[in-house]
Structure formats: structure tokens, C-alpha cells
Amino acid sequence: MSALRGEGESWGAITIVCGLSNGRGVAAGIDLRVKAEVEILDEDKVCVESFVLGRREEIGVKLVESLRDLLRSRYEIKGGIRAKIFSEIPPERGLKSSSAVSNALVIAALDAIGERVDEMEILKMSVTLSRMAGITRTGALDDASASLLGGICAADSRKMEIIMRKEAPELPVVLRIPDRRVPTSSVPDLSNSSQRFDELFSMAISGRWMEAMLLNGYLMCSLLNYDRKIIDEAISLGALSASLSGKGPSFAAICDEPERLLNWGDVVSMLR
Question: Where is the GHMP kinase N-terminal domain (predicted)?
């Protein structure tokens, strides 16, 4: 078999309502990009080169190993995989880098083998891939959907249903990104708070998603011992809403005057 090559891309996202407690979450796409290049090899081996913000950093190895197994079981592809990943999203910071990498790898692999599927099938494969790699607790369909499709996406990961998708307003997002990583495996069980998150989920899909995002931030800070004053500071500087993103440690603030928050945050992105 001669080598087959493909490319794919996806984007980061921020949390509106965290889905870790019960699999029902809401996320919004942002314009930090991940690009993946996949080559199907004759030899049964996995090779991964990965770069984050232009620097070599190991990301996506478990996903690529699982991608080989997924292609083998679903499409009877017998060879190995060489993958290159180029990411603008720092990993394990709550900015959905894993979902973005998984989406991009799936798209690149399908491109390589000449398979054309719809967006929902890409998302199902991406969630399956993340579960196979053991890097998600719920499947994170909300994150994967916002990453791939953009907009405001609400999803039930356990039922594999997208409940709502709406276009996001053209607004800047200021990101406060600490240097430290927070792997999902380190986050405590949040299931005892599922009713409170369900209330925020209902609020978000009713249209009050910025309010839900703010309240999600306060709730997550309380549950995970983050300082809610970080959110209060963003609001005092003019943010329209702000929250801890995912399980942290990053915070995100949606605003219309990002220059007022440049001392608060590190990176200015856009909703997409």
C-alpha cells in the first residue's frame, strides 16, 4: 500500500456550562486553531511530531495510537500512522485542546483514506477516539461540537445529542492562561452538583448563555477552589461575562473592549 496523506483542522473553545458533572454542557468556539497532517503507512507503527505555538511539545500521542486502532476496526486499514500536529492551544488548560486535536486527526485521517462523512459522524468518531484514548470523562460532545462547528453548542454527551447550536456574536475573548497544566484525571467527582449545572444548562439554551457562563464560573471556582475574584476583576474591567474554562486553570472573559482587559489576561481571541 502506498502512503496516503490527509489534512484536517479544528479550533479551541471555552466553557459556557461545564459538562463534567453529568455530561450535559455548553461551549463556545474560539479562533485558536489546530492543524493535523496524517499519513497512513505500510509499516504498523505510530510516529507523532507535535508543536504548540511553534515549539515542540508532546501532545496527541494517545489519540494517534487510538486513531490507528479506530481506522483498523472501522475501515480495515492495516498500516501504521505518521501524524504531525500544529496547535495554537496550550494543552490541559481548559481550552478544549484535546477535542480540537481529536477532531483535526479524524478529519485528516478520513481525508487520507478518501472517506467523506457528515459533521455529526466526524463528531461521533472524535468522541469515540477521545474515549478510546482515555482523555475524557464524559466524551465532551459539547466541546467537540463547538471546536468543529463554532458557535454556541449545547450537547448531551451521554446520549450523543447536540441539543442546540447558535451562531456566536462577533466578540473578542480575553484568555487568562496560567503556565501550569490541569489534567482531567485530577478533577474531583462533580456529580453531587449535577442539579445546579442542569439549571445553568437550561438557562443557557433558553438564550441567557452569558449569564449562565458567569454563574458557571462562580460555581466551578467554589467546587475546585479557584479564586472567584479573578472573575469579579474581569467584570469590573468591562467584561460582558467571564468564567473558569473547563476544569481550568484558564479563565475566559467575553468583552467588547479587550484593551481594558490586557493586564488581566494573556491572549486575545475571538468567538467563532
Answer: 69-151
Has 271 been labeled as part of a binding site?
Answer: no
CATH architecture label of 4-166: 2-Layer Sandwich (3.30)
**Does the annotation place 92 within a ligand binding site?**
yes
Whether residue 98 is annotated as binding a ligand: the answer is yes
Q: What is the pTM of this model?
A: 0.96
The per-residue pLDDT for range 106-158, each reduced to its tens digit, is: 999 999 999 999 999 999 999 999 999 999 999 999 999 999 999 999 999 99
Please check if 100 is assigned to a binding site: yes
97 labeled part of a ligand binding site: yes
Domain 172-270 grouped into CATH 3.40.50.1100? no
**In the chain, domain spans:** 4-166, 172-270
Tens digit of each residue's pLDDT (9 = 90 or more) over 176-195: 999 999 998 899 999 999 99
